[in-house]
Amino acid sequence: MDSVRIGMIGKGTMYLSGLLCFLRDGAMHDLRRLTRRSLPTIALGVVLTCSPCFSADKKSEDGFVPLFNGKNFAGWMIMGKKAGWVIKDGVIHSDGGQGGNWLRTKRKYKNFILKVEWKVSKGGNSGVFIRSGRDLALSPVRQRLVTGYEVQISNARRDDSHCTGSLYGFVAVKPRPDESPDKWHTFEIRCQGNHVTVKSDGLKCIDFDQSTNEATRKKPLKGYIGLQDSHSPKGHYIEYRNVRIKALK
After folding, report:
1. CA 41/CA 52 separation, integer angstroms
2. Which of 32, 67, 109, 166 has the smallest CB count inside 10 Å?
3. Each residue's pLDDT tens digit, 168-213
4. φ, ψ of residue 178 in degrees (nearest 5)
5. Element housing 119 (H / E)
6. With contact defined as beta carbons under 8 Å apart, do 44 and 57 qualify?
7. First and final CA of the chain: distance in angstroms?
């Protein structure tokens, strides 16, 4: 069987076996009749057709979609000083004392599973916001009505309602997850209707129906997703990577 060598694809070379190639345009192409000028176009069509990384919705096999592209803050709003946020090597980094405040998504989310990896310094303080409003500087009573929750990140000495994995100030963790500093951890946060669950490093530490509590039953079922800055003095940090979401019905 004949082989056709197609170059000019980045730094690599593609080999196609056989004389006919069926491309995304729906046409059969006789490779023996292709000119050098047309080969790059045909090769690109093959790559777009065969490679999953060019899928239109950019979804991974498990249905999750990246919220952070690893390069810039596309899709996010910086709700503080830009100097408080840096991206390097696919990681969002925030240093304490820089006034970064928080990042929020440009769109709101209702029912979803959110996965995010995070790393915090010793004595650090941060959190992941879910179903939030635009303004976090509100009184606790007012927050019950217009904004969602902060899934806390910390390794300071705190009670179970204010430690890592808790719905800060509203729901205590049980059991208490690992809070080791300078180590990558993973949150998996599921919001579906009134039901909120939080897994930290695979350990379910929150399983809560907000309709069962007077303080939370009026909280919104839709809002922004946010990442808090290093809410600590200088010398502390928080980092985030692999922020992904899967929409639920």
Report:
1. 19
2. 32
3. 999 999 999 999 999 999 999 999 999 999 999 999 999 999 999 9
4. -65, 135
5. strand 112-120
6. no
7. 50
